[in-house]
Amino acid sequence: MAGTVNPDLQAERDRISFEQEALTNAIDGTPEKTEKRRKYANLALNDPDFDMTSYNFLSRSEKYGAAVEKTVKMIKKIGKLGITDPTDLYIYRSHIFPNESTSFTLHADMFIPTLMGQASPKQQSKWLPKALTLQIIGTYAQTELGHGTFIRGLETTATYDEKTEEFVIHSPTRTSLKWWPGNLGKSTNHAIVMAQLIVKGQNYGPHPFIVQIRSLENHMPQPGVTLGDIGPKFGYDANDNGFMQFDHVRIPRENMLMKHSRVEPDGTYIKAKNSKLTYGTMVFVRSVLIRDVAALSLAQCATIAIRYSCVRRQSEIKPGAGEPKVMDYRAQQAKLFPQLATAYAFLFVAQEMENIYFSVNSEIDRGEIDRLPELHGLSSALKAFTTDWAVVGMEICRRSCGGHGFSHCSGIPKIYVNALPGVTYEGENTVMYLQAARYLVKCVNMAKRGDQLPGSVAFLNKKPAPKSSITEDVNMVDLVEAYRARAYYLVHMASFELDREIKNGMASYDAWNECAVALVMAAKAYGHYVVVEAFAKKLETLTNNQVPASVIGVLTLLGKLYALHGILENSGDFMSENYLSKQQKSFIYNGFLYALKSLRPDAVGLVDAFEFPDKVLDSVLGRYDGRVYENMLEWAMKDELNKTQVHESYFKHIRPFVKQASKL
Ligand SMILES: CCCCCCCCCC/C=C\CCCCCCCC(=O)SCCNC(=O)CCNC(=O)[C@H](O)C(C)(C)COP(=O)(O)OP(=O)(O)OC[C@H]1O[C@@H](n2cnc3c(N)ncnc32)[C@H](O)[C@@H]1OP(=O)(O)O
Ligand SMILES: Cc1cc2nc3c(=O)[nH]c(=O)nc-3n(C[C@H](O)[C@H](O)[C@H](O)COP(=O)(O)OP(=O)(O)OC[C@H]3O[C@@H](n4cnc5c(N)ncnc54)[C@H](O)[C@@H]3O)c2cc1C
Predict the structure, then answer these.
(1) 306-343: burial string, b at 16+ Cβ within 10 Å, e else
(2) Per-residue model confidence (pLDDT) at position 1
(3) Which of 148, 336, 357, 642 is most buried per CB count within 10 Å?
(4) Is residue 341 domain-shared with residue 363, that is, in the same domain?
(5) Catalytic: which of 254, 426, 501, 533?
């Protein structure tokens, strides 16, 4: 019957043990935040103008065109509705463009943040009103054909001409072409261009410049600028990632973003308090993508796979007793529940990262830059750690849907390919782990000197106990301590290896490369510890805020499952030096099995609590009503191949061939 929920899924919802609304509030942060999210989500979802046709059956060019149309409609609506708060805007947008890029993604997420973070107050008053009202539309053009990671190796030059008080922007080589910037290929008319600043023959390193790249009249490239799209990619079809070449393009001196460093009219260079303040936009995006890319994408895939697993029946457990829901197989639970727990863990650590980002950023605005290294180390580690685990988890969710997981009807491929570049953009993950490790090694040396370390690295000040106190009745406190101990030892081990190589006469830069394996392991362990600790802190906060015991109960199980799964996956680390005994490892294993069993009745409730609307999931398998089989054929019939019974290529190729063959 249309409109009713699949009885297998309904049965799951009828037995949920916790108060779902309170859990949703915990996920959003507060009840007020839940209310706000629902308000702006519903504004988008209930608007008939955004009756979204799925991109599934469109060509790349059609996808791009559809995104442009939808983007412009959305902007008009935003103006009409008067939405101005960045969070409200983000919620509204992400329900119109679920797991998709808008044509102005880079404008909103990097161009405007760079103006806010890198432009002087005078420059902000000139450019921001234009950018906020879309009189100008920009992107962030840093990466080049030859260099993405090594920003100091960028080749684009900005040479100051004192006579005219202009910068000359130039691409001196083929490898200096800007390559990859989002929305550059077709959509934007301005760019923040990162280029080597050269004044009076001296190179001061990469700095940001604002450059008009297309005419505001007819959208043609500006003189001296060559532009285009970089072609099809693994995903991101609707995003016109582009290339750009400059041939001695002149821009006024005032177009260098001068909040942190300046070039005076006579060519005097005033340097920033810390040259890395120029990299601030990247730190911002790394901090926000923990939630918006890693956590939410994994949570969506877990929602699809868990709902589908409660609808899908296959094989037998007890011979002759009928086919169970695949969710009842313990092996299926062992694949999916850790992904669910990871999604929760990442959502909670993202809330903490966001708070730290905004607090350190307001200090920076007041000229206090002491906490910049920690912010960089932490955001680098968490960006890499969460995106790494999220994409692995999404693939596990896809496989858990069997064959149908491979079809776009599952919705998972779209979510996956949208999140996947998160491991590469905004700092390739290995490179980000190594940046975090660089900070951690410094912290070890500071701790050795007796300095008190800040926030997330304070754990390096106190040597952990040599043995874990985990018992049969595993608790969060002991689990956090185990992760702290692992991080402590791996960071010290990497630092020790580094010192040893240097003491043995190796140059420090070679020693760094030689010890990279240990350094990456150390940064991963640090990220893992921060996530487990954030889960424990969240449980404490919720308990103090009198959140219902049923919610604390189920979240505690999830938190333990997350931590236990991580230990089982990395047991070598935890068992080295006998920190964890064989017997304790069996407690971990038993605790893991117990958590799987205990979470089973609440699995659907735990994914429903995320409240992803069907339009966002765009999944036949993960539909809220569970009516999977009733909708798959209808979905497949939308494919162009099903528009005719006999395809034209039959008449062109197969029929003549068969006719010919039958004559032989
Ligand atoms: C509530 C508000 C809601 C708002 C909603 C917004 C919604 C946003 C959603 C976002 C989701 C998706 C958006 C997707 C769009 C993004 C598309 C992708 C865009 C891009 O990819 S842009 C290009 C990004 N490129 C990179 O990230 C390059 C990576 N490379 C680097 O960062 C650096 O080059 C490096 C690897 C760090 C090395 O730099 P360098 O060689 O210059 O430095 P050294 O290694 O020598 O280190 C020197 C020193 O500096 C420290 N340091 C390095 N970086 C930083 C930093 N960023 N901050 C502070 N300090 C830094 C380093 O640690 C060294 O310190 P030391 O000398 O050891 O003390
Ligand atoms: C979808 C997408 C969107 C993007 N959008 C933008 C954008 O809007 N604007 C923009 O400017 N850029 C953008 N980029 C570019 C992106 O930021 C870079 O691709 C990214 O920073 C990685 O740099 P790279 O491509 O040079 O990788 P490389 O550095 O060439 O990486 C290749 C390999 O070398 C390794 N490696 C490199 N350096 C080191 C090192 N020091 N130590 C150890 N290993 C190392 C890496 O780990 C990796 O395995 C985008 C990229 C993608 C995929």
Answers:
(1) bbbbbbbeeeeeeeeeeebbbbeeeebbebbbbbbbbb
(2) 41
(3) 336
(4) yes
(5) 426
Ligand approaching nearest to the C-alpha of 206 = 1
Closest ligand 1 atom to Cα of 372: 59
Query: Whose Cα sits closest to atom 6 in ligand 2?
Result: 181
- Identify any residues that bridge with 169 across adjacent strands, giving them in sequence order: 158, 249
What is the ipTM score, two decimals? Answer: 0.98
Does residue 550 sit in the same domain as residue 473?
A: yes
Q: Which atom of ligand 2 is nearest to the CA of 194?
A: 11
- CATH code for the domain in which residue 575 is found: 1.20.140.10
Q: How far apart are CA 346 and CA 85, in angstroms?
A: 24
Q: Phi and psi (nearest 5°) for 478?
A: -65, -35
Sequence-separated (6 or more) residues with CB below 8 Å from residue 108: 89, 93, 102
**pLDDT beyond 60 at 300:** yes
Residues 37-52: b if buried by 16+ CB within 10 A, e if exposed: bbebbebbbebeebeb
Residues annotated within a binding site for FAD = 143, 182
Lining residues, ligand 2, CB within 6 Å: 106, 140-143, 147-149, 180-182, 236, 241, 421, 424-428, 430-431, 434
Report the nearest atom of ligand 2 relative to the CA of 427: 21
Closest to 107 in 3D by CA, of 181, 44, 180, 179: 181
Spacing, Cα 436 to ligand 1 middle (Å): 11
Closest-CA residue, ligand 2 atom 42, reads: 431
Residue that finishes a domain, picked among 270, 292, 309: 270
Q: Which of 212, 243, 270 is the last residue of a domain?
A: 270
Tell me if 519 is assigned to some domain.
yes
| Strand 190-199 with 138-141, pairing | parallel
C-beta of 184 in contact with ligand 1 (< 6 A) = no
In this predicted structure, what is the pLDDT of residue 52?
66
Tens digits of per-residue pLDDT, 104-150? Answer: 999 999 999 999 999 999 999 999 999 999 999 999 999 999 999 99
H helices of 171-269, in order, are: none
Q: How confident is the model at residue 67 (pLDDT cuts 50, 70, 90)?
A: very high
| 421 alpha carbon – ligand 1 mean position (Å) | 15
Query: Is 467 in the same domain as 413?
Result: yes
Encode pLDDT of 233-270 as tens digits. 999 999 999 999 999 999 999 999 999 999 999 999 99
Q: What is the mean pLDDT of residues 88-99?
A: 96
Regarding beta strands 269-270 and 262-263, do their DSSP bridges make them parallel or antiparallel, or are they unpaired? antiparallel
pLDDT digits (tens, 9 = 90+) for 547-596: 999 999 999 999 999 999 999 999 999 999 899 999 999 999 999 999 99
Domain count, the chain: 2
Determine whether 630 is an active site residue. no
pLDDT of residue 53: 67
Residues 618-635 have pLDDT tens digits of 999 999 999 999 999 999
Concatenated DSSP letters of 592-657: HHHHHHHHGGGHHHHHHTT---HHHH--STT-TT---HHHHHHHHTTSGGGSSSS-HHIIIIIHHH
CATH number where 159 lies? 2.40.110.10
Locate the ligand 2 atom nearest the alpha carbon of residue 236 and give its number: 1
What ligand has the least distance to the C-alpha of 519? 2
Gap from CA of 509 to ligand 2 centroid (Å): 21
Residue 140: CB within 6 Å of ligand 1? yes
